[in-house]
Amino acid sequence: MTEQEQLFRKINERFVKAFATYRLLADGDHVLVGLSGGKDSLLLTELLARRARISHPQFSVEAVHVRMENVQYATDTAYLQQFCQQLGVPLHIVTTSFQESPTKPACFLCSWHRRKQIFNLAQQLGCNKIALGHHQDDLLHTALMNLLYQGRFGTMPALLQMQKMPLQIIRPLCMVPEELIRQYAQAAQYEKQVKLCPYERDTNRTFARHLFEEAEKANPEVRYSLWNALEREGKLIETTD
Q1: What backbone torsions phi and psi does residue 206 show, to the nearest 5 degrees?
Q2: Whether the predicted pLDDT of 38 surpasses 80
Q3: Rg from Cα positions in the chain
Q4: Range 96-123 average pLDDT
Q5: Backbone angles phi and psi of 32, in degrees to 5
Q6: In degrees rounded to 5, what are phi and psi of residue 221?
Q7: Nearest partner of 90 among 31, 37, 172, judged by Cα
Q8: Which pTM was predicted?
Q9: Which of the four pLDDT bands, split at 50, 70 and 90, describes residue 1?
Q10: Residues in a beta bridge with 131
Q11: 69 near 96, Cβ under 8 Å?
Q12: Which alpha helices (H) appear in the chain, and where do they start and end?
């Protein structure tokens, strides 16, 4: 077995455990994947496409890439189209923009408008689930950020049931550590997307990542302790207000 195959097996075991544990996939699902072009969303698209071929459960997959016309960087959409074509996944490319605001950060506005486009397309296509490529480290860093800056314990859930629309947000990579994804992306020779976003800078998430890395050096079990705490408090399956 090649290194790539070994890594895929490790990741796929965690992927299957996640969708079984948190009931992320079911027969008849129509899933729309948010494909940014980074390693996480590329892997998520590949995992879902491969799983859909097994027909257990039976579900279909499509992908969407949202381009922000007033942010001066873009991914290689030709590569994304080729990547999805090889997997048999229809790819939709949507272009949008946002107005800068003196009161709201550009990153928030960009993210909000991207998410809005994904929600709109999901409803147009008749999808009942939107899959996002957040991995386990993302969820753990978010939990730390919420504790440090908002005084509450919670994170981005593995499964979020929307109440105002017939949609669920799922995060099938929620049990996969980022390091495994990084290794697989290198072994699979994913094309690295060049990021030149003018708004990119150090953020609270950067600090939370650094804090988590230091905690792991002191206690290698901290990842599992924090994850178990999120599970015990019911923070990995939630419903919107």
Answers
A1: -60, -45
A2: yes
A3: 18
A4: 88
A5: -110, 120
A6: -90, 0
A7: 31
A8: 0.94
A9: confident
A10: 33, 170
A11: yes
A12: 3-21, 39-54, 77-87, 106-125, 136-145, 178-187, 204-218, 222-232
Q: Check: CB of residue 22 under 8 Å from CB of residue 236.
A: yes
* Cβ contacts of 141-145, under 8 Å, gap ≥ 24: 141/205, 141/208, 141/209, 141/212, 142/205, 142/208, 143/226, 143/230, 143/235, 144/208, 144/211, 144/212, 144/226, 145/204, 145/205, 145/208
142-148: list long-range contacts, CB under 8 Å, 24+ apart: 142/205, 142/208, 143/226, 143/230, 143/235, 144/208, 144/211, 144/212, 144/226, 145/204, 145/205, 145/208, 148/204, 148/207, 148/208, 148/211
Instruction: Evaluate the CA torsion angle 66, 63, 119, 124 in order and state its sign.
Output: positive
* 218 CB neighbour count, 10 Å cutoff: 7
pLDDT tens sequence across 67-86: 988 776 667 899 999 999 99
Give residue for tokens 């905690």: 215
pLDDT of res. 97: 87
Q: Which two tokens stand for residue 183?
A: 């290794």
pLDDT band at 198 (very low <50, low <70, confident <90, very high): low
